[in-house]
C-alpha cells in the first residue's frame, strides 16, 4: 500500500499536521496517478476555459533558503494555498533557493547561514525545479522537505521522493554531476542583483515589486495585479490592508552581498552519508 506521505506514516504526527498535509497533497497525488499526457491536456483545457486568453498571468517570485524557519512556515502554511484556491491558474510561480547564502572570496566556496545542510538542500531543490520543470512536482518536494524542517527532521528528506511517488534519480544525478552547483551560481547571482536589494527571506515579489514584511498578504497583491476575467475565487474578497503586516523573517548579513559574477564556485564537500542515509549507496 502506498504511503501518501512520510509525514503521515510517522506514529506521533499531530492531528493538525495530518489535516494540512492531506489537504495539500491530494491534488498532487491525483496528478501523479494520472497519465502525464492526460493531465497536461486536461489541465491546459481547464486553464483556457476558466481564464481570459488575453489576461497576462501575474509573476510571483519567492526568494528563500532551506532551513529558515520563516521560509518553511511560509511555504507550508501560506504559499501552498495557491494550489487549493485556484490562484495557481493566474500566476507564474518562481522559486529561487539561495536566500542569504554567500561566497567566501578567499577559497571561492559557497557558505550558508544554516550550515552545510542548508547548502545541500538548496541545491537539491534547485535541481528539482530544473529537471522537472513542473510546478506541481517540484513544489510538492519543496513542501515536504520544509515540512520536515519545521518538525526538526529535515535529514529525512529522501523519504519525500517515495512518499510522493517521485523518482529521485534525475534530481540526485543533477546534484552529483555538478549541475546543481551551476544552478546555485545562477540563483545566487540573481538574488544578489535584485533591485531593490533583498535584505531578508522570504523575499516575495509580485510583478517584480517586493512585498517586504507583508509577504504573507501576497494573495491580495496578486489579485490586485491580475486584470483578467473571470477571477479565481481567491480574488473575490481579498484586499490589501492599509496596515502592513510585520511577519517574521531571516535577515541577511553583509557577507551575503558579495557574489559579483557568474564564475564557477565550489561547494564545501563532505560525505553525503553524514547528511543522509541514501538507500542506493
The count of helical stretches stands at: 10
What sequence of helices (H) and strands (E) makes up the elements?
A: HHHEHEEEHHHHHEEEHEE
Structural class call reads alpha/beta
Uncertain residue ranges: 1-54, 254-265, 267-281
How many angstroms separate the termini? 25 Å
Largest sheet: 4 strands, mixed
How would you write the strand order of the largest sheet? Answer: 2-1-6-7
Write a structural description.
The structure is a single chain. With 281 residues, the chain is an alpha/beta fold. The chain has helices spanning 6-9, 15-33, 36-50, 69-78, 116-132, 135-150, 159-164, 169-176, 179-192, 218-225; strands spanning 58-64, 91-97, 102-104, 109-111, 200-201, 203-206, 209-210, 250-251, 266-267. It has a four-stranded mixed sheet with strand order 2-1-6-7. Strand 6 and strand 7 (209-210) form a beta hairpin. 38% of the residues are buried.
Amino acid at each position: 500500500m502506498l504511503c501518501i506521505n512520510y509525514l503521515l506514516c510517522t506514529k506521533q504526527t499531530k492531528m493538525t499536521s495530518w489535516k494540512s498535509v492531506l489537504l495539500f497533497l491530494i491534488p498532487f497525488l491525483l496528478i501523479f496517478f494520472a497519465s502525464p499526457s492526460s493531465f497536461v491536456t486536461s489541465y491546459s483545457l481547464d486553464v483556457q476555459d476558466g481564464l481570459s486568453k488575453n489576461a497576462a498571468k501575474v509573476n510571483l517570485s519567492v526568494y528563500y533558503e532551506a532551513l529558515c524557519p520563516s521560509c518553511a512556515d511560509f511555504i507550508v502554511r501560506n504559499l501552498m494555498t495557491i494550489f487549493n484556491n485556484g490562484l495557481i491558474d493566474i500566476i507564474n510561480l518562481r522559486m529561487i533557493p539561495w536566500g542569504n547564502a554567500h561566497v567566501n572570496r578567499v577559497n571561492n566556496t559557497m557558505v550558508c547561514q544554516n550550515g552545510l545542510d542548508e547548502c545541500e538542500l538548496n541545491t537539491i531543490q534547485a535541481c528539482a525545479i530544473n529537471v522537472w520543470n513542473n510546478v506541481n512536482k517540484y513544489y510538492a518536494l519543496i513542501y515536504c522537505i520544509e515540512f520536515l524542517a519545521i518538525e526538526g527532521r529535515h535529514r529525512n528528506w529522501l523519504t519525500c521522493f517515495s512518499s510522493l511517488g517521485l523518482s529521485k534519480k534525475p534530481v540526485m544525478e543533477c546534484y552529483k554531476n555538478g549541475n546543481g552547483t551551476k544552478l546555485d551560481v545562477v540563483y545566487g547571482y540573481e538574488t544578489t542583483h535584485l533591485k531593490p536589494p533583498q535584505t531578508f527571506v522570504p523575499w516575495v515579489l509580485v510583478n517584480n515589486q517586493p512585498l517586504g514584511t507583508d509577504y504573507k498578504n501576497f494573495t491580495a497583491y496578486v489579485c490586485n495585479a491580475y486584470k483578467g476575467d473571470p477571477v479565481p475565487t481567491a480574488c473575490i474578497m481579498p484586499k490589501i490592508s492599509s496596515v502592513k503586516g510585520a511577519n517574521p523573517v531571516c535577515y541577511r548579513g553583509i557577507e551575503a552581498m558579495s557574489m559579483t559574477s557568474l564564475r564557477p564556485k565550489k561547494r564545501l564537500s563532505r560525505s553525503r552519508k553524514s547528511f543522509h542515509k541514501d538507500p542506493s549507496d
